[in-house]
Specification:
CATH superfamily of chain B: MetI-like
Strand order of the largest sheet of chain A: 8-9-10-3-11-12
Largest sheet of chain A: 6 strands, mixed
Structural class of chain B: mainly alpha
Oligomer: heterodimer
Strand content of chain A: 25-35%
Number of helices of chain B: 12
Number of domains of chain B: 1
CATH topology of chain B: MetI-like fold
Number of strands of chain A: 12
Largest sheet of chain B: none
Largest interface: A-B, 29 and 22 residues
Shape of chain A: globular
Helix content of chain B: over 70%
Order of helices and strands of chain A: EEEHEEEEHEHHHEHEHEEHH
Chain lengths: 256, 259
Amino acid sequence: MDDKPAIRIRDLHKRFGDLEVLKGVSLTAHPGDVIAIIGGSGSGKSTLLRCINMLEHPSAGEIAIQGETYRMRPTRDGSLEPADRRQVQRIRAQLGMVFQNFNLWPHRTVLENVTEAPIHVLGQPRAQAIVRARQVLDRVGLGDKADAHPVRLSGGQQQRAAIARVLAVDPLAMLFDEPTSALDPELVGEVLGVIRDLAREGRTMILVTHEMAFARDVANRVIYLRDGRIEEEGTPEQLFGDPQSPHLKQFIRSVM
Amino acid sequence: MRNIVTQMMMPHRLVMAALALAGLVAMALTMQWDWLPENLPRLWDGLLMTLAMLAASVAAGFVLALPLALFQVMGPRPLRWLSLGFCTLIRGTPLLLQLWLFYFGLGALFAQFPEIRDSWAWPYLRQAWPYGFLALTLSFAAYQGEVMRGAFTGVPHGELEAARAMGMSPWLVFRRVWFPRALHRALPTLTGEIILQLKSTPLLATITVTDLYAVITRIRQTTLLTYEPLLLLVAVYLCLSGILILGLRWLENRVPTGR
């Protein structure tokens, strides 16, 4: 394995106007790490995740993906913005993000959703992309839905299709932004099952989730974010079995 | 295709078709149609002119509508105001007035410059249809610009975000996701706008373009018939609208987005 961390975040700050949602977060994910980020709403966990692929621009701090640091430049209002759009695009193509609302493209079939990035971003030949797409669709259990349009799928199927879309580019790391929060309770299991399999396979993942039992099950490291700072981090056993901070104790009591 | 056939077989459509057929039979039997065969070539030319003006102005107008819409959605402030001003001006004034301003105003203005009169463009600029084309195009662009502005803003942000997160460049996001999604959302309105545009083409006759309406008017003058030519005109416009509606609806139904 590569000795460079897959993701390294150093002293990340993010400010929306007067509101500072991240107040200096540092985090390193090595290849194969599955890191669960937990915390109450407004703790900044989604923002942190979205900074990793520059969907949000950090106000200060540094992010490196497999040793390559995003080149940033100051903006007029004292924040930062990417200085090199092509670099951002190149790095994003190696990170896969799964969204709370799936965000599939409804004007394309499931198969076309999955082949879109391999063909148009990575420049793979269409035939090769289709073969690969069918493989990943089989993996998430949607082999028979390849030619359906996303609206014809259930929420759980849509989210699995979104995971397949990300898998098709064979990402360096996968970012999950509350992947089951928009699902009906009976559909959560099938999506978590797919994510669990990927985790066992050794994929690098950062997972923002409200599913504590699941985080405990699949993560090798858990981070408790509170009020824009990492209040506690460690193995799932440490955090869930023996939480130190009173806030975390209360948080775990309230959600479990 | 089967979809369209079943749609045609719905009860209210069958009744309408039967009524139309009865009307046609009555017209054929009781009215005077002997002028039709000798005028067919002229009618055909007029129809072609109508269709050419419709197709050209819709195509050019749509191309022009895209920047008008995009500037309003994400352009720098001066461009945003400029597009908004253009759309408001064109949409706020009668098309007839615009046609006359271009034809009588611009046409007369061009004629005063020897540079223009001697240029390669003059053989075109001394005819009426370029001014008609210009006016129809600008009008369609203004209306469609407004429609596309709404369609662009209406595409869910998350879909664009997903595209960016896959590493797409802004241009690729536009070409593969934003534009096709907006176009699909705008299709129902686009159908209506194209039908309206079809029904605007008779105005061209007022600036001496010989479209179908102009041909019919001339036939009415020579044959001294009041109704028959007009009924033919009604039938042709109805057929054209029908074909347009069916074609565009077919396009729309190809993508189920559950909207």
